[in-house]
Amino acid sequence: LWRIGVGGSPALFLGPIAVEAAARRSGMGAALVEAALRCAGTEGVAGVLLVGDLPYFSRFGFYVLDGARMPGPVDPRRLLWWSLTGTAPTGAVVGVRD
Length: 98
Known about the structure:
Blueprint: E1 2-6, E2 9-13, H1 28-40, E3 47-51, H2 54-57, E4 63-64, E5 79-83, E6 94-96
Parallel strand pairs: 2-3
Antiparallel strand pairs: 1-2, 1-6, 3-5, 4-5
């Protein structure tokens, strides 16, 4: 988890997460995501952002963060948000925080 700002709110960025090919389909990736989200819940942030595939991450409660953008070539349809506050930032620019 990386400390970032989203729409002026403190947030965390999840990733990258990788699971060795031989261990895929064992539930290890899901366990890593769930552990990261439990940790995020103790950090006093608005939510967690990641770049990923909605069909996989929606099961954890992630959804597309409309209007967000990041530096570099990132497909905005892959910017996913998991909210701890119940609301998502709008028109967000994502930046690294100290």
